[in-house]
Amino acid sequence: MAAPLLQASIDIDAPVEKVWGLISDLRRMPHWSPQCRIMKPLGPLRPGTRTVNLNRRGFLFWPTTSRLTEVVANEKLAFLVEANNSVWTYELQPTQTGTRLTESRHAENGTSAVSNALVNAFMGGVPSFEDELVDGMKASLARIKAAAEN
């Protein structure tokens, strides 16, 4: 069963190219995300490139890997987190005053049973964890906005 689409957007008073420069440097992901501690790309920014990641929530740490699935300069960046079958996407749209940036988490085939079991056992259950992910998206987008507008 598909997991719900998780999504947040923000309007940024900066050109698309500047916002793209911030989000496309994957090593900077820990600056934006409250959960990501490390995101290390293992190659250039292009579809198929893998990353090694470390996430944190309170006292819990867990590693993941991901694979870039879409890279369209100044428009879209997406990666598949292989451990739970979720796709994280950043989409950029030009506006009259700058850029609308949308972050989404898609899991059309549902997240993995192992992932759901771990979230239920250690992170307060899937619904509250998904609420936390949306709050994290909003925090990430606010941090990107602050960096882009400075």
Question: What is the gist of this entry?
Answer:
The chain has 150 residues and is α+β, with helices and mostly antiparallel strands. The chain has helices at 16-23, 29-32, 113-122, 126-149; strands spanning 6-12, 36-41, 50-57, 60-72, 76-81, 86-94, 99-106.
Residues in helix, % = 25-40%
Number of helices: 4
Radius of gyration: 15 Å
What is the CATH topology assignment? Alpha-D-Glucose-1,6-Bisphosphate, Chain A, domain 4
- CATH C-level: Alpha Beta
Level-2 CATH architecture: 2-Layer Sandwich
The span between the termini is 42 Å
Largest sheet: 7 strands, antiparallel
Give the mean pLDDT. 91
Weakly predicted, low-confidence segments? none
Morphology call:
globular
Relative strand content: 35-45%
Q: Give me the count of strands.
A: 7
What oligomeric arrangement do these chains adopt? single chain
Enumerate the strands of the largest sheet in spatial order, edge to edge or round the barrel. Answer: 1-7-6-5-4-3-2
CATH superfamily: START domain
Compressed to H and E, one letter per element, the order equals EHHEEEEEEHH
Structurally, the number of domains stands at 1
Name the structural class. alpha+beta
